[in-house]
Write a structure and sequence with these properties.
The chain has 4 domains: 117 residues, Enolase-like, N-terminal domain (Enolase-like, domain 1, 2-Layer Sandwich), CATH 3.30.390.10; 207 residues, Enolase-like C-terminal domain (TIM Barrel); 263 residues, ANL, N-terminal domain (Rossmann fold, 3-Layer(aba) Sandwich), CATH 3.40.50.12780; 99 residues, GMP Synthetase, Chain A, domain 3 (2-Layer Sandwich). The chain is 30% helix and 25% strand. The strands form 8 sheets. The chain has a 7-stranded parallel β-sheet. A 7-stranded mixed β-sheet has the order 19-18-20-21-22-23-24, with helices on both faces. It has a 5-stranded mixed β-sheet with strand order 14-15-16-17-27, sandwiched between helices. A hairpin with a 2-residue loop joins strand 28 and strand 29. Helix 1 crosses helix 3, helix 5 packs parallel to helix 6 and helix 15 packs across helix 16. The longest helix has 19 residues. It is elongated, with a radius of gyration of 31 Å. The protein starts with a strand and ends with a strand.
Length: 732
């Protein structure tokens, strides 16, 4: 991109002399704006802090004039923003302002966020430590969910700190002395604080780094002095076990890249890098927020609400377009926990390690949906892990996401159910999500008062697609607690649409008294093959079942029955091909809702070759079964669905699964695992199977169990089922 203009404007606003602003009543800043030839605009803020900064507003004004004299400027990559700022001026606040303005211009042109220029999956939720002066403020902060409090402490204020600690016994404390303690009194003051839950004391006195080679009872943090340490002194400080944290204030240190370099060094030594503000206005504070997101790590940062911003908009901003940030709204920093809404893509010349990738364990609650919606609103990719997954599986999936290159239109990463092997990561674009929702809406339409029950995992397409459809259709999602029966949720929550897997529908029908509520107009049934007997039983009860066919790679349904009792037919814009009734073949799917690729880079669109065998005719899509489930016995192919359809019709069989068992004579023989009730008669069952199935397809091994193993998605766990102990069947 080519920067063609630079503007600047001096602003001044009053601040309340409380919290971090104790002793100050006014703040000044220089707002810097840059624009490229396409109109992309970026803003930065130079706000040297009197008494702490080594530079001034005059330095910032001169830097803007030097920058303007060098126009036009070519800006090809993120690293150029830092290089340009350093060449223009040595003043830290001015460098921060110019670098921020250039970075936000890049981010705006690329449709992404500043944080995402440095980290492919920047941290989305930021927790802040709150500055408190009194016991009342401490109690109020803790009541609002704040876990960490920061207290400004002079050498004669030990009693006040002790009172605050007593008023908020569950909070961790950080003490900031602002270099105000006499050096000779510092060891005694630290000893007096040793019994309190203190994370560190920040800059207790002048030359605080020199204390790190002593035996101290409380750990320290370095703030202003970071800019004064030479490389050797910095290395010694970071290597000290007494250094708990470094406080990164880009206004004082000179911008993003300098702070990110320091954060990388801190992480390498096990020291926490904590981003904080220097009483900047909204632009500088928002830039600090983006820096914190890029650095990551699950520690409270120093970006809680502060009085310096309370009158900024009233006194400074003249119209809504006066300060168009291009970065996260600074208004969000008023909350102790912040969910950001910025976007994606790593374009950095030297990006930071993904030590805190933005990956969400998708629990079935409003918070998960809120985070997904926030990410979508800001074009930020989000990877969802199943809440029922094991720690080992979560770790494997996190590694896959951390090493993948996400960006552009990538919206969501979902993992397949893993029913036949390790779950694979699937990358879905925003266009795919929208196309899927629109195709569903075209089939069902939306009615006033529609409420869609989501009782499928939000980490799988069946559940997440409900959230996306309702988002675009502006309709209500009904979430079910794990302890709430589906039947109760359907009735009590006025549900009109629902998505279920066969096991959930079978559980509903187990209650002979249950009938679907009158408002329920459609139940999408998919995720696994639905036995004909189950569908017939549901239709007899009046359940408006609509069979669907879809996969993670298609973001759920790509074929749905037009009416209860019919076979699924391709949705608008979808093409599905396969074999014939006599020779089923792998189904192939084309459509705008196809995923882009797998996490390993293997492409999916424009055509997905599934592992499902089947064919398509005028009646709809016939799915015979998965190619990898086919049982080869004595040279004959047996599709499990062929056997399961017969077994499901057997009196007393509640559910049945067919699978292969190794056999020295036939290679494999057919086995079935059943759940049964009191009506099941083994002799009659064998007789019916003998009549209905050819010899090679008849079950030769049997397992009767209380329940069939399921995956977290609700699908049958065929790998576990295949390991069940079985007994031989004798048809003689």
């Amino acid at each position: 991109m080519k920067i063609v203009s630079v503007d600047h404007r001096l602003v001044r606003w009053p601040i309340a002399a409380r919290g971090a602003a104790r002793g100050r009543h006014e703040r000044e800043a220089l707002i810097v704006a840059v624009r490229d030839e396409s109109g992309a605009t970026g803003f930065g803020e130079a706000a040297p802090l009197p008494g702490m900064s080594v530079d001034s507003l005059e330095d910032a004004i001169r830097a803007c004039e030097v920058l303007a004299a060098r126009l036009p400027l070519e800006l090809a990559m993120t690293g150029h923003a830092s290089t340009i700022a350093e060449r223009v001026t040595p003043a830290p606040a001015a460098r921060f302002a110019i670098e921020t303005a250039l970075l936000t211009a890049i981010a705006q042109a690329r449709g992404t966020s500043v944080a995402s220029l440095f980290n492919a999956l920047p941290q989305a939720e930021i927790e802040s430590a709150m500055v408190v002066d009194t016991e009342t403020e401490a109690r109020d902060a803790v009541s609002r969910g704040v876990r960490c409090l920061k207290i400004k402490m002079a050498a004669n204020e030990l009693a006040r700190v002790q009172r605050i600690a007593k008023a908020a016994p569950t909070a961790r404390l950080r003490i900031d002395a602002n270099r105000g303690w006499p050096v000779e009194e510092t060891p005694a003051l630290l000893a007096a604080l040793a019994d309190l839950p203190i994370e560190y004391v920040e800059e207790p006195c002048l030359d605080a780094a020199d204390l790190l080679d002593r035996d101290l009872p409380v750990k320290l943090a370095l703030d202003e002095s970071l800019g004064e340490l030479d490389p050797d002194a910095l290395e010694r400080a970071l290597s000290s076990p007494l250094l708990a944290a470094i406080i990164l204030k880009p206004t004082l240190l000179g911008g993003f890249h300098r702070c990110i370099d320091l954060a990388q060094a801190a992480h390498a030594h096990g020291v926490a890098p904590i981003v904080s503000h220097a009483l900047e206005g909204p632009i500088g504070t928002a830039a600090c927020h983006e820096l914190a997101r890029a650095i990551g790590a699950d520690i409270p940062v120093g970006l809680g609400h502060h009085p310096a911003l309370e009158s900024f908009e009233r006194r400074v901003i003249r119209d809504a377009g006066d300060v168009r940030l291009g970065i996260e709204s600074a208004a969000a920093v008023a909350n102790p926990r912040i969910v950001t809404t910025s976007t994606q893509r790593v374009v950095a010349a030297g990006s930071i390690p993904p030590w805190s990738p933005r990956i969400l364990v998708a629990t079935p609650n409003v918070e998960t949906i809120r985070e997904v919606y926030a990410a979508l609103a800001a074009h930020e990719p989000i990877a969802l892990l199943h809440s029922a997954g094991t720690a080992a599986e979560h770790e494997r999936q996190r590694e896959l996401v951390a090493h993948a290159k996400l960006g552009g239109d990538d919206a969501v990463v979902l993992f397949t159910s893993g029913s036949t092997g390790p779950a694979k990561g699937v990358v879905l674009s925003r266009k795919a999500l929208v196309a899927s929702a629109e195709a569903s809406a075209q089939l069902f339409g939306w009615r006033d008062g529609d409420r869609w029950l989501c009782c499928l995992p939000l980490a799988h397409s069946g559940g997440l697609s409900v959230a996306i459809r309702c988002l675009l259709g502006k309709k209500t999602i009904v979430l079910r607690d794990d302890d709430t029966p589906i039947s109760h949720a359907l009735e009590a929550r006025d549900v009109t649409l629902a998505s279920l897997v066969p096991a959930q529908l079978a559980a509903l029908l187990d209650d002979p008294a249950w009938r679907p509520p009158a408002k329920l107009r459609a139940v999408l049934l998919g995720g696994a093959a639905a036995p004909d007997a189950l569908v017939a039983a549901a239709l007899d009860r009046g359940v408006p079942v609509r069979l669907t066919y879809g996969l993670t790679e298609t973001f759920g349904q790509v074929a749905t029955a037009r009416a209860p009792g019919e076979l699924p037919k391709p949705l608008a814009g979808v093409t599905i091909t396969g074999g014939t009734a006599d020779a089923p073949a792998l189904l192939r799917v084309r459509g705008p809702m196809l995923a882009t690729r797998y996490l390993d880079g293997t492409p999916i669109a424009p055509e997905l070759v599934t592992a499902d065998l089947g064919y398509v005719d005028a009646d709809g899509v016939h799915v015979i079964g998965r190619a990898d489930d086919v049982i080869i016995t004595g040279g004959e192919n047996v599709h499990p669905s062929q056997v399961e359809a017969v077994v499901a019709c057997t009196p007393g069989v509640r559910a049945g699964v067919a699978f292969g068992v190794a056999d020295p004579r036939w290679g494999h023989v057919v086995a079935v695992a059943l759940t049964t009730d009191a009506r099941f008669d083994a002799v009659q069952a064998l007789a019916s199977w003998h009549r209905a199935l050819p010899p090679h397809a008849r079950p030769r091994r049997l397992a009767v169990v209380d329940s069939l193993p399921l995956l977290p998605s609700g699908k049958l766990d065929r790998r576990s089922i295949a390991t069940l102990p079985t007994s031989p069947i004798d048809y003689a």
